[in-house]
Amino acid sequence: MVFTGFSTDTLVGLPPELFSEVLPAITLPSELKVTLHVFYRLSQQRATPRRLSWEELLADRTLRRSLRSVSKLRPFEDLLAEGLEAAVRRGTLLHVALPAGGRVGNWYLVHTAANRAWVERLTRAQVALAPAAEAPSQRPSLLGLYEQNIGLVTPMLVDELREAEERYPREWIEEAMREAVRANARSWRYIRKVLERWAVHGRQDATHRAERPIDVEKYTGGAFGDLFRRGSDDTDL
User: Fold this and answer.
1) Eight-class DSSP state of 151
2) Beta strand residue intervals within 86-150, DSSP E
3) What integer is the mean pLDDT of 2-12?
C-alpha cells in the first residue's frame, strides 16, 4: 500500500534529542516502533504526568499491527516487552511498578527531569507508607533482581515469580538468574527450566556438594495440589 499523504500541515513537536541521540542509536525494530508509538500516545494525553500502562499498550491495535511487521511468528506480547525493555534500558522511557488490586501495575513515562522527579517521589512515598513488616530489607526483591539482570517484569511474570518463591528456595532462583546471565539466555523460560532440572536431579553448589532434589509432588499433589501448578507452559516472557 502506498501512503497518500498526511491529513494536516501541522507538525507534531518532539524533543530534538529523540532525533539527534536516541533514534540514531536504535537498531532493534521493536524498540524503534514502541518508542515512537509511546510518544504518539502520550502526546494525546493531558494528565500529569503523562503515562501509559502495560495493559493500555497491550490492547493497542495500531501498535499490534505495527509490531506484526517485525515478526509474524513471535507473540505480540513478547515483541512489546522486548521494545519496552530496550527503551527503558536505553533511558528513553521510565518504568514504575505500582500495586494495583493485589497485583503490580507497570507504567511507562518519557524520561524527562520532571517525570524522573515524580517517579523518585513516588518511590520514596511507597517506602514511607509501607507497613513495617513489608519494609524493604537490604536484600533486593526477586522482582528487582529480575528487572536488573534479565528484563521487563510483566504482570504474568509477577505471578510466575510468586509461584516460584513458593516452590523453590530463594537461593535457587537467584542462582538460576545468574546462570541465565552467564549463558546469555535472559528469559524466564530458561530460568524455569533450570529450576525444574535442579528440582529433579539436585543442584551442585559452589563447593560441589549435591543438594537433594525438591519433592515436587509434595506441592503439586495431595490436598493442596490445586494451589500449585507444574511449569508446563513454555511461553517465553
Assistant:
1) -
2) 93-100, 103-110
3) 80
Q: How confident is the model at residue 226, as a pLDDT?
A: 45
Q: Looking at this protein, which amino acid is placed at residue 236?
A: D
What pLDDT, on the 0 to 100 scale, is given for residue 162?
85
**Sign of the C-alpha dihedral, residues 46, 43, 68, 85?**
negative
Q: Output the domain CATH number for residue 93.
A: 1.10.10.10
Strands lying side by side in the sheet with 52-53:
52-53, 103-110, 93-100
Which grid coordinates belong to 188? 524466564
Within 13 Å of residue 179, how many CA atoms lie on the same side as its CB?
20
Segment 139-166 shows an average pLDDT of: 80
Q: Where are the beta strands (DSSP E) in 40-155?
A: 52-53, 93-100, 103-110
Spatial separation of the C-alpha atoms in residues 146 and 144, rounded to whole Å:
5
**For the segment 188-235, what is each residue's pLDDT rounded down to a tens digit?**
888 988 888 887 777 665 333 444 444 445 444 544 444 334 333 433
Of 85, 103, 130, the one marking the end of a domain is 130
Tell me: do 109 and 171 sit in the same domain: no
Cell numbers 518532539 correspond to 14
Which of 197, 232, 222, 225 minimizes the C-alpha distance to 211?
197
Query: What does DSSP say about strands 203-204 and 210-211: parallel, antiparallel, or unpaired?
Result: antiparallel
Domain that holds residue 89: 20-130
Q: CA-CA distances (angstroms) from residue 42 to 17, 87, 197, 202, 214?
A: 17, 15, 44, 49, 48
219: left (phi over 0), alpha (psi -120 to 50) or beta: alpha
